[in-house]
Amino acid sequence: MLLSVMKSKTITYASKMFVFFLLFPAFATGDVDTNPPEISRFIDEATNTLPLSMREALQKAKITIKFAKLDEYKAIIPPPCTPPTKGIKPDYGVTGKSPFNKNSYTIKLNQNFKSEIIAGPDNSTKYECGYKNVYRLALATLIHELTHVYDSLTGLSKSLVYKNLANWHKGFFIKKSKNKLHVRSPDPYEFENISENLAVNMGYFVLDPQYPCRRPEMNEFLTKHFNHSPTPSPECKLNNEVHLSTSNLLVSLDHDRVYQIHYLLAEKGNAMESRWGHAMFRVIICAPGKPLGPDCMKDISRHIVISYLVNISGPTLNYLAGFFGGYRSQLYLYTMPEVINEYTLGQSRNIRSVPIKMKRNEMRQFIYRALEQYWGYQGDYYFLWNNCATEALDSIRGVMLESPKVQKTKYTIATPLKIYSALKKLDLIDESVLTGPEAQGRYFFRSFADQVEAAFNTIKSMNGVPAELTLDEYLYTYQSLKRRELYTLIKDTNPTETKKLAIQFYFIEVMIRDKLMQMLESRANKLVEKSSEGHSVPSEHPSKYPGQYKDWIERMVELRSALLPWLLVNKSYGIPFKNEYREAKVLEAKMAEIHELKIKIQSELKKTEKEIFDDLDGVSENIKFFMAEIKARARTNNNVLNYEEK
């Protein structure tokens, strides 16, 4: 049987291309014309499954379909549902273009498929994953090979749009997928090359009714490209639940509740890895029942931050590994208040949040992409070549497919500030929000160090404050009780400024607490390094278990690694369904063990860092005291204050 279709230069394994062309004349027999009617019906079923626009494109060339011996096995070996057995490499199909006629193509299917096709889908060999039975695997194989023919005709997979969508990039010698995580793939062969990526996805697009819910981003692209929807009304429901990275609490990334997507820039910090800033995205999610609009900016506790970070597989960061790709880059999710505290308070960095000018369909694609990458993406992390800025740019290019300028934007070395400048140059961000009346606290978040300095200047302006007192002196020489006594002294001489005064003192106490916590973390890291080197821990009150610091923290890292999203669900592909989650008690047990380890570490640290813990106790008392003062003044003035203790 001859089909008028098109060329393909891709086969199942590249090493067999040479063999294929050498043996091409030897495969002249075995044409499908000589096969029983079940084979003809099978081929009709496969071609009728394809989108009409694809079938029309395939009319431009002639294709011969044959069955041939492609491997050493006597039966079809289905794809493994677990990591494949070493040495078993079945070949299902191969496509080649005639060296004598550029419009002539031959698709060879494994001859062991014939008996399965004749048996029919109901009687075909079953297996638990993928296409579920070998008949459907045969259908997928033919569709896969016909896709190679179509791709060779149209160059779809080679287009910049497809490469950006599929997250492929140019390596030193070849183009390759950025994704190094294959456990959530329907077929890891999709990472072989960009052409195989399209062919694998095409098989699931036309044959799997769950594909729209498992890979919604690619499904939407293929639906639009081919003007064809294999499942117009999917029976499945997209699972938009994700776990927050700090608490593992479930939150919803529902594109219907998204008002805007912001480019979130944490300005440069003091650490080497943060001197270029940090690029993130802020998803403005509206409260339930609230219409999409500017009022959603007030729902800051519901805003989710998408941050691509290095996944550190040990207790401390190894800078050399960071430069040479020794870590993985992956997507983490936080609440906006968490990010504000981390950068403005913990790292004394300003944050800018500017809306990206996305259409509704682009915002939907952005959420689809975030969900897919949350459940199934890890790339190589390099400080210079694949960092948070690179990931941010790739995300924007992957969803703004209709903008040629966006598609062509690239940097050899990307930084968050460069991406910000590029978005500004492309007129893709709205900076006017940074100078508007509601900028502070909605679009711009000032470094807590700046706020503390302003707070101290306010305190200094009050009557009764020693003129020679400096901020450093106040922070590092005034004990907690003395700071409270100073407040009482100033309050008595400035009775009309009590609420304002209490707020300033409160800000400073929170900063002192954070600095003490950072000091504790630094001391803990040093203890880990010492214990790993076999040194004893110097202390007036020696720890009973100094050598266990390293073990405890490494165990925490191990437990955290076990909480990676793709390890919390059973085997499937793409975005999982809720019924595929592993038992909740497994997650709860790991979280409980992490909590116990934190208590152990804190208990041991108290023996070596008693002075810091005493200071922390004093700060905690001050924070409670100043919060009570603020609330008391608010009640006096009939105001409602929503100060949340950090």
Q: If you had to describe this structure to a student in words, what would you say it looks like?
A:
- The protein is an alpha+beta fold and 646 residues long.
- The chain folds into three domains: 2-226, no CATH class; 241-445, no CATH class; 448-636, no CATH class.
- Helix content is 44%, strand content 12%.
- It has a seven-stranded antiparallel sheet with strand order 14-12-11-10-9-13-15. Strands 1-2-4-3 form a four-stranded mixed sheet. Strands 5-6 form a two-stranded antiparallel sheet.
- A hairpin with a 6-residue loop joins strand 7 and strand 8 (250-252).
- Helix 12 (360-376) crosses helix 13 (388-399).
- The longest helix has 35 residues, at 498-532.
- The radius of gyration is 30 Å and the shape is elongated.
